[in-house]
Amino acid sequence: MNSEKVIFGFFITLAATLNFGFWTGDMEKVELHNVWELAAALVVSLIATVLKFGDRTQLGAVHLATSLVADVQLIAGSIIWTWAASTPSGMTPADMALVVSMSAGALLANLISVVLMISEIITARR
């Protein structure tokens, strides 16, 4: 068993599951979405991105691209949350819907990355 592949797979899968956990729930209900879960999803996504820098294959480039997309979406969602929370009205349902939408885009990128990882495993077995 290759420990590098295990760590790589762990962080890709953890990024997707944390993002899914944040995304789940009514988009407009602030109480259903935890800021710390968004922060954890962002940190794990950034770690997954760093792990993808060493792969020089075409598939590695697509892995990196999907990870960068997820990072941008999660960073944008975090900035929106921080900005909205610092306004006098606080986090509104519309603000939360926007943050969750950003998370949904990152989730799609994470899912593409997981599918790529699974397809890479399947083709390596043959």
Descriptive account of the structure:
With 126 residues, this protein is mainly α. It has one domain. It has helices spanning 3-23, 35-51, 58-85, 93-125. Helix 1 (3-23) packs antiparallel against helix 2, helix 2 runs antiparallel to helix 3 (58-85) and helix 3 (58-85) runs antiparallel to helix 4. It is elongated and about 55 Å long. The protein starts with a helix and ends with a helix.
Helices and strands in order, then pairings?
Layout: H1 3-23, H2 35-51, H3 58-85, H4 93-125
Q: What is the strand content? A: under 5%
Shape: elongated
Q: What is Rg?
A: 16 Å
Q: What's the end-to-end separation, in Å?
A: 17 Å
Poorly predicted ranges (pLDDT <50, ≥5 residues)?
Answer: none
Largest sheet, strands/sense/barrel: none
Question: What's the short story on this structure?
Answer:
This protein has 126 residues and is mainly α. Helix content is 79%, strand content 0%. It contains 4 helices and no strands.
Q: Which features characterize this protein?
A:
126 residues; mainly alpha; 4 helices; elongated
